[in-house]
Automatic annotation (TrEMBL):
Keyword list, A-Z: ATP-binding, Nucleotide-binding, Translocase, Transport
Family matches, as InterPro entries: AAA+_ATPase, ABC_transporter-like_ATP-bd, ABC_transporter-like_CS, P-loop_NTPase
Stated name of the protein: Iron complex transport system ATP-binding protein
Pfam families: ABC_tran
Amino acid sequence: MHQALSIENLIAGYGRRVLLRNLCFTVPEPAFVAVIGHNGCGKTTLLRALTGQLPYEGRVSVNGQDLGAVRRPAAAGLLAHLPQRASVEFSLPVRELVVMGRFRHHRFLGAYSAADYALADAALARVGAAHLAGRDFTLLSGGEQQLVWLAQLSLQDAALCLLDEPTQQLDVYYRRRVFGLLHEWVQQEGKTVLCITHDLDNLLQLPGYLLNLSRPAPQLQVLSPELVATERAYLESEASLGPHPHA
Ligand SMILES: Nc1ncnc2c1ncn2[C@@H]1O[C@H](COP(=O)(O)OP(=O)(O)OP(=O)(O)O)[C@@H](O)[C@H]1O
């Protein structure tokens, strides 16, 4: 059995500004991993490297497959990515946007089938957004749009889901609901979820791991209420901010 995610000596940054130095961690089995840290510590940079948008040194493998050697990891079902800001330039019914999550199962130029649309509707219902199916996506609120993207991502069937602050614009009810949903993806669908978040309160009751990228040598730790309290205290302390190791 391959490890769900393995990161070996990952180095990435922008020119001489190195943000990730020899990052090493292994997620042995499908799991939820919360990535936390101060603004600007390199959380999004990590996702950019994993999605091939930023060159990196080191080795990343998903279910035993070397990510650097796969030309189109999304098309291969290895990873799916929800960036912090995603936009759609033209009017589009929500259902049409969600069904696009089925792109891997879709024939070139063929229409999506009734079964694809049924899956899209079910995905919308799971995020609590069934009522949005017929609405124009571009006219939704920021939080509503976030729920729709999550529904689309859930249809992508990827081994590794990378999410950049998916609950950022959500109200307290939907925040909790989305963390519950991510946990279900792990438990019921065997996905590994790497989720950047500042929402430490919602991590208290979740099983999984925590990676604090503000630590000088970040390591994967098993999530627990005690760990969240320790890492919160660390992030709140002036000492953790400076002198900034990356400046
Ligand atoms: N293209 C770029 N060129 C140079 N520096 C960049 C570039 N993109 C980002 N940075 C810098 O790299 C640092 C890390 O950015 P990153 O987006 O990874 O932070 P983050 O941890 O995700 O922060 P936040 O919590 O605010 O989203 C920031 O200081 C940012 O200004």
